[in-house]
Amino acid sequence: MPIRPVRLFGDPVLTTPADQVTTFDAELRRLVRDLDETLYDQRGSGLAAPQIGVSLRVFVFHDEDVAGHLVNPVLDFPDEEEQDGPEGCLSLPGLYFDTKRRLNVVAKGFTASGDPVQVVGAGHLARCLQHETDHLDGVLFIDRMDRDRRKAAMRAIREADWNGIAPPAVKISPHRMANGYT
Ligand SMILES: [Zn+2]
Predict the structure, then answer these.
(1) Which of 8, 29, 66, 86 is positioned for an S-S bond with 96, CB 3.0–4.6 A?
(2) How many helices and strands (H and E) does the chain possess?
């Protein structure tokens, strides 16, 4: 069962802080494989374990030329620079909202084998790393918005006709589809 159903907004697992990984075993490597295959299937740019119902601090990411996974990630911000632009989430299918993020990030964590690893990200990759790490804290990108943007986002979410199986038919360019969802 490598491709797993993605949990949608409203599922309590998405607002629950995930547990630290303490055992780096075959089961963890299977989880990373399932996340990778589900992300590839969904044509997203990042997917966190809680999004497939597993409350562990693990995510995978596919950016333009960087792909990988991080276990127990911790973010460092090397400067104060910010970016603002559209962000999406596989748990809120079809919806994009402008979200402010830091421009540069250094994510430190471990591979599924327990080796320390560091990912340096700018721009879209930095946005993805912040979005996925937030998922591990039970934080969604709409929680990162100011009041007005969040209000507009909540309205769009209420109007989105998800039935838990099929995402709404929203036209998105293939580029956005490939790079926007996280
Ligand atoms: Zn997301």
Answers:
(1) 86
(2) 4, 7
